[in-house]
User: What shape does this take?
Amino acid sequence: MDSVQSPDWPVAPQGALSANSATARYGGPTPTPPPVVGRASLPPPQPAAQPYHPPVAAPAATGTPPRPAPPIPVKILIAGGFGVGKTTTVASISEIDPLTTEAEMTIAGIGVDDPGQRFDKTTTTVAMDFGCVTIDRSLKLYLFGTPGQARFGFMWDDLARGALGALVVVDSARMDDCYPAIDFFERAGLPFVVGVNAFDGRLAHDLGAIRWALAIGDHVPLVQFDARDRLSVRDALLVVLDRALARATRDKRA
Assistant: This one.
């Protein structure tokens, strides 16, 4: 086998780098020559100034947009005497199929459950009515209709728990049936609005006479509405909501 002869590397002068050293081969730092004594040395040349370029904003991170906050639930009671239109009120405004607990009226209720002159009423609420309506993206009303008979009065305390306001539905032809409901909310300290249901589109008495007969102060809103008309029910509920929010704001400041 022929032998391989290594190249003849030049001999480096004394104090200099060897031509085959790692520093010479791979571009290591070159020793700085000593300063010249006796004369001023020129400063090293500076690199040319580069033109200014404004920084470019990084592209926005793409991802799933944040979910909107769910609407705040607000519990509202629809209360009043027997046969004044509570179930109709909830059904007219609810955006879901309302939950009702209607039972057929029997001869056992004659003389006990008096519907007045509305002989076409054949059912009655025996527990509660439930519906809901979204006001906007931040607010949703949950409506609980109370039973109107006195024998179901024990349920009112449970239904009123957590409620922020109430709409007391009144039949102007039978105002005495709504006295227990007004007394209940006055004792409970719950904000309420009296809504006079316009049966057949008219009232038996004007609102001033009704306020006097119910002995309610001027601080209690008294409105006329039609339980069969969705927009009319909406306007009455907005009054309840406004009163409830005013009460909550006042309590928070206190």
Summary: The chain has a mean pLDDT of 77. The chain has one domain: 72-253. The chain is about 25% helix and 20% strand.
